[in-house]
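Subject: for your reference before the review

Hello V.,

The reviewers asked for a structural picture of the protein, and I figured it would be easier to keep everything in one thread rather than splitting it across files. Below is the amino acid sequence we used in the manuscript, unchanged from the supplementary table.
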Amino acid sequence: MDNMKADNLWHITRGERLKYLGATLAMAGTNIFLFSAPVVGGAAIDVVDQGLAAGHSVVRDVASAFADATPASYLLVAAALVLLLTGVGGLFLYVRGRLAALASEAIARRLREALYRRLHDVTARFYDAADTGDLVQRCSSDVETVRVFLATDIIEIGRAIMLVVCVVPVLFLIHSQLAWLSLVLMPFLALGAYLFFARVKSVYQLTDEAEAAMTATLQENLTGIRVVRAFARQNYEISKFGARNANFRDLNNRLIRLMGLYWGTSDFFAMMQIGIVLFAGAHFIVVGSLTIGELFTFMTCESMVIWPVRQLGRVLTDSGKAVVSLGRINDVLIEAKEAPARIPVGQRAQGEIDIEDLTLSYDDSPVLSDLNLHIRAGETLALVGPPGSGKSTLIRALLRLYPYSQGSLKLDGEEIADLDRHWLRQQIAVVMQEPFLYSRSIRDNLTIGRPHAPEPEVLRAVSDAAIAGSIERFPNGFEEMVGERGVTLSGGQRQRLALARALLKDPPVLVLDDSLSAVDTGTEGQILSALAKRKGRHTTIIIAHRLSSVIDADRIVVLQEGRIAQMGTHNQLASTPGPYQRLCEIQGALDASIAEDISEEITS
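And here is what came back from the structure prediction:
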């Protein structure tokens, strides 16, 4: 499944081709039996017109076996035979449809799973440019378009080809001159179907992309509905969605107009072709070179050819849609995966991190430049610096989310680029400033890293993260459901729940990326005190803008423009002129101002 391609039908039908072969054979059986029915019916008409001598000898013999051979008994046997042939043809039709449906559903399932798996394996850069709504469209609507094509249309193409190959020679056997006349307008129908396919393919691609843009707008607005309301942007967002919706409608209407033009034109040529055969057949009946029954058989057989050829326009329309959808699906399936591991690992990491001459760039300009840093196992290291200085980028490099272009980044002496990324990320727990929570219970969110964690450890984790009291106040305790992305919780509760989740995982490396920014100073002190008791248990990296979070760190690293500007303990850096001392002065002045304002408010 990892190597699945969707660039052509041969690749995606792998494993299901026997079912399609069975469906093709069943389709051949359907055509044989359904074609035989009008042959029997045409002979029956000739019996009515010319007597028993014009009928088939086999049908006459069967009629005489049950009763006297009369036109009435012949017609009864012929009617029963037509019903039998039609019934058997219908049975083959059912087999054909079932096999095609089973094959197409299996392929659609494999495509969805391959897409979903690949979306978990692609690089982080892919998501920097990707649109979530568009990816949802590719995994749902585009796969469904391919499934419909594989379930019905691919069989219809084979049916049309088979009917043309098998039935046209029969038409020449019945009456060669009439057969040539019956094919006069066929090239126009085939040419019209091809031109329609070429035109509708480009229009459908625009329509599909417009639908994806509309879906993306809807998904984005529903996700950020509270922000929209907070800024009173409902009318703007409604207008924005309306514009996307109107564009999709206009392109869809354009597609419908093209289809209407094709159906009207193809119907005209098809009916004209039938009219030519009818009038020419009447002439041949008059001159005696054709019987009424033969004309009935001829016209029935011709209809079995002309309507499938005419239907090729619809089939080719769906083919164009399927080609576009396959291309969009394949764009994801061929997307580069994260680099594989070269070093097998399995034991728990110690947590020692070595960084040598590390350089990492997102575009052309480096975010980290020649960075050198050694972090001892069990050490608590704080990273401070202005926004854009490279703090979070360093964590992304540590998680192998972005490849570094130069230098070395090692965990326990092994290059991170060579380590199995799944194992690596099991060794590191990151608590983000805006943590992601699932729309599940609190317990489910807590135990994602350790689904079978013992209850005492769960209680210890929520206590250390200072969230135990909040959980106790919920009506359902640990079984309380949180909304999408944890929206039913406050910002501080979300951060503390995410911290508890990371602590429960008990990783060798713990990263706190400004993860206490939404909690009050009292709760922050409680959490830092609990983390201090865990000192040495994890290699802890704290990214913070609030100095109270980093004062007790073993070392503080000040980053500026992707380089280390200062490094030392809080006391060392606070007493040394430089960016950290200025930061202490600014925050000290700010804290004093806030305290003064609070004091004045209390006294007044």
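For the response letter, the relevant points are probably these. The CA atoms of residues 263 and 490 lie 58 Å apart. The first helix runs from residue 9 to 12.

Happy to draft the paragraph if you're swamped.

O.
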